[in-house]
């Protein structure tokens, strides 16, 4: 008796395949022509992106204090494994050494490392190793450059459109008694740069580690008590006050911006403890405190890694390399440095996990920049893998 072949329904394919990582889907395109057409379809890609892992790991880079050139140190730190396995060759497909500027939905924005004769800006995808080089108007190491890419807001035929925004600070008068921020915007639709007519009066300077893009709106930390906001679609800028002014602290606080559930978050480590704030209204600078714990409780809950934290913070007052620091925040996960080690702190479980030491990433780096990266590299659940194996086995029988 001839055994009847089992054919998976299109509903099952749409249920299973979008849950796989981008890396796995690239391999599955070779299973059959039907799968290749499905996986290459833009509507399928958009569904898959919505279901991918929001946070895979962090990119880390640094440079020496006594060198005037960019230090060639870029590492990718995955967070899924108990013991971190670093990847130092993630961007080796680019034609030159680069420094990472930003990351958004699997795309990375970076620039040529200095010194460089003709520096450019790159937007690349490390999964399929595709990249695009952009001309860089008035290149400068001090430029603050951000990638704006939100595949969920774009229509299907404009799925890969992105923008790159450069913010610059300029003097309002020849005497230099006032400053304003201006914005240059590159659009992949037009392929050209243009200067926005929007400006923002502000005498504070940018912080290098303090940029985040949330739903198309860019936020930059300044060295004052203000956050610069720029809506890249409507070209509107605004200054937002931080939740707590620095005048309230005896010790210099550590802070960073991040994103969770589509909202801007502000992480603060100070003498009062660890705090997490969420922005409710950027026009009124209204923040809600969603999490707080004292330094004493933070130490008790993580006594394996923390010891006399308040005393060590006080002894490092005014230091250019404080004992504890915030590096990056994404999806309620904080990447933080304590001494010479890097940890993850989960705001939901209130627990820390050791990732690595700084010496494992680079020998004595002075400047540290970290960028959260979201891409579905990791394997899915055992149940899902069994479903995929069944589909693969069926199509192998048909092909061979």
Arithmetic mean pLDDT: 79
Major β-sheet annotation: 8 strands, mixed
The total of helices stands at 8
> Would you identify the regions where 5 or more consecutive residues have pLDDT less than 50?
1-7, 376-400
Radius of gyration, CA atoms, in whole angstroms: 23 Å
**SS elements, strand count:** 23
Characterize the overall form.
Answer: globular
Which structural class best describes the helix and strand composition? alpha+beta
Cα end-to-end separation? 21 Å
Share of helical residues:
10-25%
Organism: Anisodus tanguticus
Pfam families: b-prop_At3g26010-like, F-box
InterPro entries: At3g26010-like (IPR055290), Beta-prop_At3g26010-like (IPR056592), F-box-assoc_interact_dom (IPR017451), F-box-like_dom_sf (IPR036047), F-box_dom (IPR001810)
Protein name: F-box domain-containing protein
Care to describe what's here?
- The chain has helices at residues 10-16, 22-28, 33-40, 42-51, 295-301, 309-315, 358-361, 382-399, and strands spanning 57-63, 74-78, 98-104, 107-112, 121-125, 130-134, 144-148, 163-171, 179-187, 192-201, 206-214, 217-222, 226-231, 236-241, 254-260, 263-270, 273-281, 286-293, 324-330, 333-338, 341-346, 351-357, 367-373.
- It contains eight helices and 23 strands.
- Strand 13 (226-231) and strand 14 (236-241) form a beta hairpin.
- With 400 residues, it is an alpha+beta fold.
- This is F-box domain-containing protein.
- Residues 100-296 form the F-box protein At3g26010-like beta-propeller domain.
- It holds the Pfam family F-box.
């Amino acid at each position: 008796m001839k055994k009847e072949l089992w054919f998976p329904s299109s509903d099952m394919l749409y249920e299973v395949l979008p849950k796989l990582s981008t890396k796995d889907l690239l391999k599955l395109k070779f299973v059959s022509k039907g799968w290749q057409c499905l996986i290459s379809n833009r509507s399928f890609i958009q569904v898959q992106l919505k279901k991918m892992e929001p946070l895979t790991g962090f990119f880390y880079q640094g440079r020496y204090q006594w060198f005037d050139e960019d230090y060639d140190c870029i590492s990718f730190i995955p967070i899924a494994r108990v013991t971190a396995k670093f990847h130092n060759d993630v961007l080796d497909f680019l034609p030159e050494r680069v420094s990472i500027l930003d990351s958004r939905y699997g795309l990375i924005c970076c620039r040529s490392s200095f010194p460089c004769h003709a520096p450019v800006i790159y937007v690349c995808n490390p999964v399929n190793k595709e990249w695009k080089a952009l001309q860089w108007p008035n290149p400068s190491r001090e430029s603050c450059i951000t990638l704006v890419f939100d595949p969920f807001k774009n229509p299907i035929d404009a799925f890969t459109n992105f923008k790159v925004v450069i913010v610059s600070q300029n003097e309002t008068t020849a005497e230099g008694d006032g400053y304003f921020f201006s914005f240059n915007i590159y659009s992949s639709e037009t392929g050209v740069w243009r200067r926005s007519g929007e400006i923002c009066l502000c005498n504070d300077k940018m912080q290098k580690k303090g940029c985040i893009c949330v739903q198309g709106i860019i936020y930059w930390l300044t060295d004052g008590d203000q956050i610069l906001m720029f809506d890249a679609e409507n070209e509107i800028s605004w200054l937002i006050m931080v939740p707590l002014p620095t005048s309230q602290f005896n010790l210099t606080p550590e802070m960073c911006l991040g994103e969770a559930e589509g909202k801007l978050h502000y992480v603060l480590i100070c003498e009062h403890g660890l705090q997490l704030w969420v922005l409710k209204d950027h026009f009124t600078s209204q923040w809600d405190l969603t999490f707080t714990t004292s330094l004493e409780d933070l130490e008790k809950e993580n006594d394996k890694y923390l010891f006399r934290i308040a005393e060590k913070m006080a002894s490092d007052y005014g230091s250019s390399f404080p004992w504890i620091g915030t590096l990056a925040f994404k999806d309620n996960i904080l990447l933080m440095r304590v001494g010479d080690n890097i940890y993850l702190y989960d705001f939901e479980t209130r627990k820390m996990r050791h990732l690595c030491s700084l010496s494992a990433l680079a020998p004595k780096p002075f400047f540290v920049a970290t960028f959260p990266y979201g891409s579905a590299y990791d394997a899915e659940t055992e149940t899902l893998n069994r479903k995929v194996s069944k589909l693969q086995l069926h199509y192998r029988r048909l092909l061979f």
